[in-house]
Amino acid sequence: MPLIAHPQSMPFSQPLPLQSGAAIRDYALSYETYGTLNADKSNAVLICHALNASHHVAGVYEDQPKSEGWWDNMIGPGKPVDTDRFFVIGVNNLGSCFGSTGPMHINPDTGRVYGADFPVVTVEDWVDAQARLLDALGIRQLAAVMGGSLGGMQALCWSLRYPERVRHAVVVASAPNLNAENIAFNEVARRAIVTDPDFHGGHFYAQGVVPKRGLRIARMIGHITYLSDDVMNEKFGRQLREGIDLKYSTQDVEFQIESYLRYQGDKFSEYFDANTYLLITRALDYFDPARAHGGNLQQALAQTQAKFLLVSFTTDWRFAPARSREIVQALLDNKRAVSYAEIDAPHGHDAFLLDDARYLNVVRAYFARIASEGAAA
Amino acid sequence: MPLIAHPQSMPFSQPLPLQSGAAIRDYALSYETYGTLNADKSNAVLICHALNASHHVAGVYEDQPKSEGWWDNMIGPGKPVDTDRFFVIGVNNLGSCFGSTGPMHINPDTGRVYGADFPVVTVEDWVDAQARLLDALGIRQLAAVMGGSLGGMQALCWSLRYPERVRHAVVVASAPNLNAENIAFNEVARRAIVTDPDFHGGHFYAQGVVPKRGLRIARMIGHITYLSDDVMNEKFGRQLREGIDLKYSTQDVEFQIESYLRYQGDKFSEYFDANTYLLITRALDYFDPARAHGGNLQQALAQTQAKFLLVSFTTDWRFAPARSREIVQALLDNKRAVSYAEIDAPHGHDAFLLDDARYLNVVRAYFARIASEGAAA
């Protein structure tokens, strides 16, 4: 009997002040919950998502057996984050295109679709919005907040912004900020979208078009950076798509890797929103808790109160282990309790979503410890 | 008194058969020579260029003091490849947009501009065309053939295709073939160009437009892969372009790295030809001398007769040292004479064009040895 997920929506009428100085009002957050909130409301775990994900973290939708949540291998009954013990909340971030209020929704100030006028949101804004959702659900303190990649940044941000509301922060395949190369890849992807003639300055909805060319390029770039060199060579290498003879064409698919990337790009451009892509990559660029402390991460993390689990993957060149180690070191320098696992995995950044026994066991053991601590910790 | 370069053009009426099975006729190669061919014509050095370069390798043009050749720090009087000793030839490849016959020239079969109908050319085709140029210049054997990156592939190809015509091959920052990740980056760049509405299937010249959007994206991707992570962090890091306040914009430039990439993309799109970009990246993809030997590089290199210098750079992730070492190993397994230098340089793939004393000294010493050997070697 699989876990059945029930998407819900929480409306907020109170304006949410944003880091940019703007505010957003009359918005809604999509979310799902799994498991049961215990009597003292001490077993809640919040899951934060990365670029291309949503509140649908675990389980399947009724009568849709293929609709597994994006972290279904990690979260569910008897799984590393055990929904028989924890009340797990998946939430979709503001600006997303998967349910929560985003660029394709109506701007209450104008009565027209937001489009490019959707306010620029940051990791801090998302965390603030998530905190309000917890308020609405009556949850004062999280047993844990957890996320991978951009989701890990949110988990880290939670421990800084609401230190007393987080007992544990689980930060997987993440970084204390993006480096120049990461920003560079984001920028190329954004330029591809913004310069697509079908983007219309971000107001393409009214034109009945979608900047698919740009979205395809953005996704292709993304996929290259999610995979490791090793796994690409193993999976595709220089294998030709058709037989062994070269076609000698600059435009046709010749190598399997080209076919894979085109397929991923095409698929993505069918469902992902271009304005959301811009917003989410920008939130990634901006995240940098050390910035307000002159670049001193130790100082920035001094305000944390949580215990931490950090996980990184050896072949992840997008969020390399060295970046996780910066966080670990800064926490240790603050005498925080930190567990750190560097998993020797071939899959690059994608590894955080995949089945790796060592990785899943580390998380399982950590959450077993959280469960045994209870609210007393 | 700087070296003054004189561009020349050599016409060829005889059709050149290509690897694809097609042929090209009535073409011309642009080239430059520096220094003096000695009496027994034994001191010629051929320089092969990479993606964005040309026959203008060294020196400056008359009355254009800023027009230094792309490898002017390496080649010239008293420089590592000393034009007081060697007769150096720079040649522009077929399909280029810098002088030799390319997609913007007239197809003699149709009387119209080639555009996308320019035949797909390979590294082997370029080497064959270069061999004909040497024939026309009366040069039977090269003291050395030298190139970096794609130019290094041509140097390696020379040693295989015309073993008796090459005494030394100098292969810098190169590889025995592209790996899947390299092909992937090329493919994204090509898709950006081909899907630009101004590309018109490669026949944009007649429309009076240029697919600049695609060229910009292609160049931005290229620049990311030419630089190392380290040098990007050092040069740009997370530095903002204007002051210290964030603008909270998804489309404006916020970080210095974005400004740099946009500038490079804009500049490139003003002068580089889109069809040439497709052709050259495809030549990169196709090069794979081991392919005809079931992937066995040692077997492929058994036919070489030259002595070799290989150079790689530690932070080059586009053509990593490990790829150069594959060539070195395969040559050693064939008992060839090989010198190999792995230069600890922070600049990534770009290092092969930059001033690094150790690198320049290695090349200087190697060419001094070639000069001392004379034609007897």
Structure description:
- Chains A, B: It comes from Pseudorhodoferax soli.
- Chains A, B: One of its GO terms (biological process) is homoserine metabolic process.
- Chains A, B: This is Homoserine O-succinyltransferase.
- Chains A, B: Pathway: Amino-acid biosynthesis; L-methionine biosynthesis via de novo pathway; O-succinyl-L-homoserine from L-homoserine: step 1/1.
- Chains A, B: It catalyses: L-homoserine + succinyl-CoA = O-succinyl-L-homoserine + CoA.
- 2 copies of one chain form a homodimer.
- Chain A is of the alpha/beta class.
- Chain A has 2 domains: 7-177 and 289-375, Alpha/Beta hydrolase fold, catalytic domain (Rossmann fold, 3-Layer(aba) Sandwich), CATH 3.40.50.1820; 182-281, Rna Polymerase Sigma Factor, Chain: A, CATH 1.10.1740.110.
- Chain A is built from 10 helices and 12 strands.
- Chain A has helices at residues 123-137, 150-161, 180-194, 212-226, 229-235, 256-271, 274-286, 297-301, 321-333, 357-373, and strands at 8-12, 16-17, 23-24, 27-34, 44-48, 75-76, 81-82, 87-91, 144-148, 168-172, 307-313, 338-343.
- In chain A, the strands form 3 sheets. In chain A, strands 1-4-8-5-9-10-11-12 form an 8-stranded mixed β-sheet, sandwiched between helices. The first copy, chain A, has a two-stranded antiparallel ribbon with strand order 2-3.
- The model of chain A has no long low-confidence stretch (mean pLDDT 96).
- Chains A and B meet through helix 3, helix 4, helix 5, helix 6 and helix 7 of A and helix 3, helix 4, helix 5, helix 6 and helix 7 of B.
